[in-house]
Amino acid sequence: MSTRVVITGLGVVSPIGIGVSEFWKAALAGRSGVTAIESFDPFPMDGYRSKVAGQVRNFSPERYLPSQQADRVDRYAQFALVATKEALTDADLVMAKEAPHRVGVIVGAGMGGMVMGEREITQLYQQQKPHRVHPNFIPVITLNSASGIVAMASGAKGPNLTISTACSSSAHALGQALQCIRSGQADVVITVGADASITPLVFAGFCSLRALSSKYNDHPDKASRPFDQGRDGFVMGEGAGALIVESLAHARKRNARIYAELAGYAATSEAYHMVIPREDGAEVAMTMKLALDSAGIAAAQVDYINAHATSTTIGDAVEAKAVRQLFKGHADKIAVNATKSLIGHTLGAAGALGAVATSLAIHTGQIHPTANYDHPDPACRLAGISRSVQERTIRAALLNAFGFGSNNAAVVLKKFAA
Q1: pLDDT tens across 335-355, in order?
Q2: Which terminus of the chain, N or C, has fewer Cβ atoms within 10 Å?
Q3: Which residues form the active site (predicted)?
Q4: How many CB atoms lie under 10 A from the CB of residue 67?
Q5: Cα 305–246–194 angle (5° rounding)?
Q6: Which of the residues are catalytic?
Q7: Which residues 6+ apart lie within 8 Å of 21 measured at CB?
Q8: What is the overall mean pLDDT for the chain?
């Protein structure tokens, strides 16, 4: 029998709250964290098609981190550290009592240290002084900077990995944590998704790709609207989610509180297109099926899907089509929601933040609303999408995450039963 794996701690930095309690309260209220971008100093916003984003407001790293940590890492790694710190506390996991080589760190990140990266390259070209480039430039901008600093801050000496598969990064990180524990490489994996890429260049790039919403610049809280007929693109977000993942035996040994069981995972490639999914939904449906197969769960047992649902015209319709293909008549009995409707698309952090929402839904029996679902698109219509909180016992749930490069991930979580 496969080693059972559970989730025992959660941590959040998000546009609707820093900390799990604040995040969950806002999520259940259906409150949007999408706001107007005032400027990209020194750039005015006039040149940008989209002018809104899910921004983490009032984040002062010194409130949460020792100054030597906060000052030497990029914003995305600061988010990762803060979320990890909360998750470790929430799990009551005391690292001094753990065998350090049995605790791993796996981080999902889409872009890496873009805040420092853009700043330093701009200064280099403007000032033409190569000797003035920040001495920590290279270790700060590398994609594995967050996983390294999380390990150093926590004392975790087990497997240390960074997964970068665009928007599916941290869902894959969660799946890799499951496999790491099942293969016996670790007893505990600190699993994190983090991104902070609301920067002049990255934002301009997504605008040029015409991937971002631009119809709701005057009404930012209305811009992210998955499955709605009025959607016109995704809204960039930022933040981090952290989950303490451990073997059931390890969790029982220390009498840990369990949010949910991590039961299955699938990773596939559509091998189709760098940006858009196959419109027939077949590959998304296959990914979900493979995840359920790995968990030993039948489609009819699924009660809830935390959808990828970015608010793009094609993506949402394809995901809804895939759900109908796989679940057939059961599709309308499944509760479906979109965490991105509240916080925007946090890129590499999206899977982890969705997993936090899914774990809380399983634990509390409450499924947060999908914001701005005002005019359901017939191409995306699923009976389980709601603008209100849904209350139900969740036996099994699917978390979907799909990324640029034809990358698909699906993770199965279920209610823990002794």
Answers
A1: 999 999 999 999 999 999 999
A2: N
A3: 167
A4: 9
A5: 60
A6: 167
A7: none
A8: 96
The pTM of the whole model exceeds 0.90: yes
Please, which residues have CB within 8 angstroms of residue 100's CB and are 6 or more apart in sequence?
155, 156, 157, 158
- Which runs of consecutive H residues, i.e. helices, occur in 65-113? 67-70, 75-91
d(CA 161, CA 372): 37
Where do we find the tokens 């978390």? 399
What is the structure's pLDDT at 2? 84
133-154 b/e (C-beta count within 10 Å ≥ 16 → b): eeebbeebbbbbbbbbbbbebb
Provide the H-helix boundaries in 103-247: 114-127, 137-141, 145-154, 169-182, 200-208
Q: How confident is the model at residue 1 (pLDDT cuts 50, 70, 90)?
A: low
Would you say 98 and 172 are in contact if contact means Cβ atoms under 8 Å apart? no
CB 394 within 8 A of CB 304: yes
Look at residue 44 in the predicted model and tell me its pLDDT.
86
Conformational region of residue 206, where left means phi above 0, alpha means psi within -120 to 50, and beta covers everything else: alpha
pLDDT in the model for residue 345: 98
Given the structure tokens 């900390």, which residue do they identify? 19
- 152 and 100 in contact (C-beta within 8 Å)? no
Any alpha helices (H) in 92-141, and if so which ranges? 114-127, 137-141
The Cα 16–Cα 131 span in angstroms is 40
Alpha-carbon distances, residue 75 vs 70, 111, 146, 257 (angstroms): 9, 12, 10, 31
Biggest CA-to-CA distance, the chain: 65
Domains of the chain: 5-253 (3.40.47.10), 264-414 (3.40.47.10)
Lowest mean pLDDT among 18-22, 66-70, 161-165: 66-70
Tens-place pLDDT, residues 190-239: 999 999 999 999 999 999 999 999 999 999 999 999 999 999 999 999 99
What sign for the dihedral angle of Cα 26, 303, 379, 170? positive
Above 80 in pLDDT, residue 68? no
